[in-house]
Amino acid sequence: MGLKKEIKDYIIITFGLILIAIGIHFFLVPHNLAAGGLTGLAMVINHYIPNLSIGIIMLIGNIFFFVIGFIFIGKAFGTKTIYSSLMLSVIISILEKVAPISKPISQDILINLIFGILIGAIGMAIVFNRNASTGGTDIPAKILNKYAHLEIGKGLLIIDFSITLLAVIAFGATTGMYALLGVIINGSMVDFVIDGLNITKRIEIMSSKTEEIRKFIIEELGRSATIYRAIGAYNLEKSDVLITVMGKKEFIKLRNFIKEVDPCAFIITHNVHEVLGEGFGNILD
Fold first, then answer.
1. How confident is the model at residue 228 (pLDDT cuts 50, 70, 90)?
2. Is 56 within 8 Å of 105 (Cβ atoms)?
3. Is the pLDDT assigned to residue 237 strictly greater than 80?
4. Parallel, antiparallel or unpaired: strands 200-206 and 226-231
5. Which residues contact 268 (CB under 8 A, 6 or more apart)?
6. Which of 11, 65, 142, 171 is the most exposed place for a label (fewest CB within 10 A)?
7. Angle subtended by helix axes 79-98 and 2-22, to nearest 10
8. pTM, rounded to two decimals
9. Among residues 85, 78, 84, which one has the least CA distance to residue 60?
10. CA-to-CA distance for 285 and 5, rounded, in angstroms?
11. Closest CA relative to residue 12, chosen from 191, 197, 196, 249
12. Per-residue pLDDT reduced to its tens digit, 160-219
C-alpha cells in the first residue's frame, strides 16, 4: 500500500510539474515575465546568454542551490523536492525542443500573465499538496531563516523582489512591474488552490434516526463519528448530536441517505481546510 501511494504521489507531482512548465513556457517566457523564483532568474540570465536555454539554466541552478543547501542546511531535502525541482527543469527543456515559441500566444501581456500564473499556481498547489516543492529559491530562503532568523515567507519575498528588480533592468520597467504583479498573484493563487484541494466537510446531524445514520457512516462510508448528548433549548428535550468529518463526495452520499431515513433531520455543514489524523493527513508531515 505504501509503494502504491508513493507511485501515485509521483504521478500526481509530475502532472503538477507539467502544468507549471506549460504556464512558464507558453505564457510567461514569451513576454519575459520573470515572476520571481529560479524560473525568473533563469529568464534574466537567458536574456544575456541566449545560447543557454531556460531549462538548462534551471537545471544548473537547482544543482547549485542543492549543493549550497547541503553545505549550509544539511540533509533537509526530501526526495520528492529533489525530484520535483530537477524534473521541472527537464520538462521545460523538452518543451523548448518539441514546442518552441517564436511569438507570444497573445499580444496582451496581462492575458499571458494571468493565464501563465493561473496554470502554474494550480500546478504548484498540486506539488505542494503532495509534500514536495520545486526547490530553487526556497533553499536560499531557508538559509536566511537559519542564519539571519528571517521568516521563510519574508525571505522568499525578498528574493523574488530582487529577481523582479533584475527583470526591470533586463526587460524594462513595464515588464518588470508586470512580473512583480505576477509574484503577488501567484502567492495568493497557490494558497487559494491548496485550500480548495483540501476542503473537507464537518457535519453536525440532529436526527431521530441517529443509530441508522451512525451505522451508514461507519459501514458504508468507512468514516467515524462522535456523538454528543444535547438538550434542545426550545423544549428542553434530550437528543443526540452526531458529528463527523468527510470528503465532499462522501457527504453527498450521506445527505441522500439521511433524506431517505429522516427527511426531518437537522444538518449543519462547515468547510474545513485541513484535517490531520487517522483517515486524513499525516500529523507528522
1. very high
2. no
3. yes
4. unpaired
5. 203, 204
6. 11
7. 40
8. 0.72
9. 85
10. 15
11. 197
12. 888 888 988 988 888 888 888 888 887 778 777 877 777 889 999 999 899 999 999 999
Decide if 73 contacts 140 (C-beta within 8 A): no
- The pLDDT assigned to 77 comes to 63
156 phi/psi in degrees, rounded to 5? -60, -40
Q: Mind listing the domains of the chain with CATH numbers?
A: 2-197 (no CATH), 199-272 (3.30.70.120)
| Residue 136 backbone class (left: φ over 0; alpha: ψ -120 to 50; beta: rest) | left
Long-range contacts of 78-82 (CB under 8 A, 24+ apart): 78/131, 78/132, 80/9, 80/10, 80/13, 80/130, 80/131, 80/132, 81/132, 81/133, 81/134, 81/135, 81/138, 82/135
User: What is the pLDDT of the chain when averaged over all its residues?
Assistant: 85
CA distances from 164 to 41, 46, 215, 245, 282 (A): 9, 15, 57, 43, 36
Angle at 179 between CA 24 and CA 93, to 5 degrees: 20
Question: Ramachandran region of residue 149, left (φ > 0), alpha (ψ -120 to 50) or beta?
Answer: left
Residue type, 222: G
3-state class of 283 per DSSP? coil
> Cell numbers of 210, please?
441517529
Predicted pLDDT of residue 152: 61
Higher pLDDT among residues 235 and 18, named by residue? 18
What residue type is 169 in one-letter code? I
- For the cut 60, the answer to whether the pLDDT of residue 283 exceeds it is no
For the record, the C-alpha cell of 247 comes out as 470528503
